[in-house]
Amino acid sequence: MMEGCKRGLRFSIVIIGCLLLAQPVAWAQQPKYGGTLRVAWEADVTGFDPHTSPGIQSQYLVGSLFNSLVSIDTDLNIIPELAESWEMQEGGKTWVFHLRKGVKFHDGTDFDAAAVAWNFKRITDPEEKAFAEGFFDPIAAVEPIDAHTVKFILKHPSLTLLPTLAVYRVGFLLISPTSHKTWGREEVRLHPAGTGPFKLAKWEPNNVIVLEKNAHYFKPGLPYLDRIEFKVMKDGVTRSTALRAGEVDFANAVPRESVARLSKDPKIQVFRGRETQHLIVLFHHGRKPFDDVRVRQALAGYGIDRRVMAQSALLGQGQPLLSFVPSGGRDHIDLLERFPYNPDKAKALLKEAGFDEKNPLKYTLTTFSAEPALPTIATIIKTQLAQIGVEVTIEIIDRPIWLRRLLQQRDMDQVLAASSNVFDPYSRRFVLDSRKGPNPSNHRDAHVNELLDQLAQTTDPAAYTRLGHELQRYVIEQMIYVSATSLPTIEAARDYVKGYEFLHGFKKRFERAWLEK
């Protein structure tokens, strides 16, 4: 038996089932109520459905609208949220969660155990195409015991359950079943009804998203703010300039070239923590010649110099990276030496695959500019590959269009993008599993799926680490989902923004933020 206040088996996760989250943090200053937080936001969202709306911006924003059973704190410990406590039974095959009472969804309906079970069924329904579906594979069923107690029955004990509920693709965020019934599968993304500290008030695409205070939030005294305005500013320098001028109070995705200047400004506070995000390089494995591993190794391995990218595009603030787990993620391993920059080796592999001066490889690299480093790195890739006789055309498109083409039309040769944040190797399941999830590289490698399944089934922390390392090595060897560089999460705010909890890019949470002005 493992009670709510004991340590979990994996990652020394602190299960603080008896922690009273309802008690406000003791600030050095008394928080003030009211006001509007103006946020410079780097790109528009695709919708507000925490289960199916793609894109990092949507993942970040829905955290203000929805809650999960458990969440993370600033040290990445697992903490209670909609569940007050939990216990493990039957050697880890059953977990019982005790829910908070009196919680309402934004549409006025009750949050209860039946709603938790309904959300599980929705996420695991293939027709819904939920991004997190694969993470829930170890769960056989979710059953209400009574209105405020719910039981998770696992197919086998797994170290991945709590991270799945807390942080894998931002956790098990719970929507109102009534809202889904009212609006339907396609339209519910426009009518979010969660239990979160804020409610959607207005969305003007490519202009502004306005959230307003949830006066019935279950955490007493929170939130402090009346409103949040996410102002879409696609240019990074524009976001930084607006922050320095006081036109906004908070800036997301601060560009590297602005960090030094912002850090010297006494009226600005810069947030930066562990590196958990990265820039992705991947190919469409269903298209020739990218179905040939030699071509992928030449183009994304030996043919590009990641150190130049980190220095030139990230101004030395990021690191060259090959693994899909950055250094701030758990069980990261450094694989750079496996594919050092070696143009001669790249040319030799391309020649083996049938490409040379007489038959040069030509293809298109597609990216977007919401992350300012991406166009620069795309240019570096184009220049470096030109030195080995490869002709790359760069295509820069708006992020929502990019997402649609990546996930629906699937018509891109090579993709360069910013990832969501990486907790551990298993947290990439939704992009690596070829059976479920978006599978952006369109691979059909059964061994990747086998390794993911083994990770989900082990209960030995040492074996979990070993399998995580094996997964990284294999995915990189096959060039299925690789990095160009790490991508530091950098945010900044005016000095009068108080109480904001920086969560290393995994989530954006403003429920404790307040304005001293």
Give the gist of this structure:
By secondary structure, the chain is an alpha+beta fold. The chain folds into 3 domains: about 35-65 and about 195-275 and about 490-515, D-Maltodextrin-Binding Protein, domain 2 (3-Layer(aba) Sandwich); about 70-175, Dipeptide-binding Protein, Domain 1 (Dipeptide-binding Protein, domain 1), CATH 3.90.76.10; about 280-485, Dipeptide-binding Protein, domain 3 (Roll). About 25% of the residues lie in helices and about 20% in strands.
Task: Explain what this protein looks like in three dimensions.
There is one protein chain. With 517 residues, this protein is of the alpha+beta class. The protein has 3 domains: 36-65 and 196-273 and 489-517, D-Maltodextrin-Binding Protein, domain 2; 71-174, Dipeptide-binding Protein, domain 1; 278-486, Dipeptide-binding Protein, Domain 3 (Dipeptide-binding Protein, domain 3), CATH 3.10.105. 26% of the residues lie in helices and 20% in strands. The protein is built from 14 helices and 20 strands. The protein has helices at 56-61, 113-123, 161-166, 177-187, 236-244, 256-264, 293-302, 306-312, 343-352, 373-386, 399-409, 429-432, 446-457, 461-477; strands at 36-41, 70-72, 78-80, 83-89, 94-99, 139-146, 149-154, 198-204, 208-213, 227-232, 250-251, 268-272, 278-283, 362-367, 391-396, 414-418, 482-486, 490-494, 497-498, 514-515. The chain has a 7-stranded mixed β-sheet with strand order 8-9-10-1-11-18-12, covered by helices on one side. The longest helix has 17 residues, at 461-477. It is globular, with a radius of gyration of 23 Å.
